[in-house]
Structure to design on (135 residues):
């Protein structure tokens, strides 16, 4: 019987440590200039972030705070990490939930640009840029 409880405890610990993999994700696909990007955001991050309506007041996260969040995420304030563009957009199918899209250029990277989604809570999610198809 003791072996049964040991195995049960081991199974519970294994499942509890992997719960992060089972968190529901919200997929957003957006066009940002000539780039098509996709990002996967934890639903709980959206739900726990502040709501905002553009008709009421300033956004809970300013443009400057969003840029600082990306710099903190990248652990740099390197001048070569140039912000090329920033947009404020609603999250698709999420009432009163908004985010910033920030496009960063860095000559040292293999890719020409990186795009980051910044939620109103300050959470930064790197987006993937879809490769351009050749016709």
């Amino acid at each position: 019987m003791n072996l049964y409880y040991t195995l049960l405890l081991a199974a519970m610990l294994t499942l509890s440590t992997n719960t992060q993999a089972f968190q529901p994700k919200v997929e957003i696909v957006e066009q940002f200039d000539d780039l098509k990007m996709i990002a996967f955001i934890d639903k709980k991050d959206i739900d726990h972030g502040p709501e905002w309506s553009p008709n009421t007041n300033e956004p809970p996260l300013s443009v400057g705070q969003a840029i600082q969040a990306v710099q903190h995420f990248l652990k740099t304030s390197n001048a070569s990490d140039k912000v090329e563009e920033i947009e404020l957009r609603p999250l698709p199918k999420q009432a009163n939930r908004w985010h910033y899209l920030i496009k960063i250029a860095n000559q040292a990277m293999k890719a020409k640009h990186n795009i980051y989604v910044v939620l109103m809570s300050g959470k930064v999610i790197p987006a993937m840029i879809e490769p351009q198809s050749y016709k």
In short: The chain has one domain: 21-129. The mean pLDDT is 82. The first helix runs from residue 2 to 17.
